[in-house]
Amino acid sequence: VTPLQMRKALGRFASGVTIVTTAESEDDASVHGMTANAFTSVSLDPPLVLISIANRAKMNERINKTGKYGVSILATDQEPLSLHFAGAAHQPDLVRFVWRREVPLLEGALVHLACSVDASYPAGDHMLHVGRVEQLWYDDGHPLVFYTGSFRSLELLRDDPWGF
Ligand code: FAD
Ligand code: NAD
Question: What is the ipTM of this complex?
Answer without folding.
Answer: 0.96
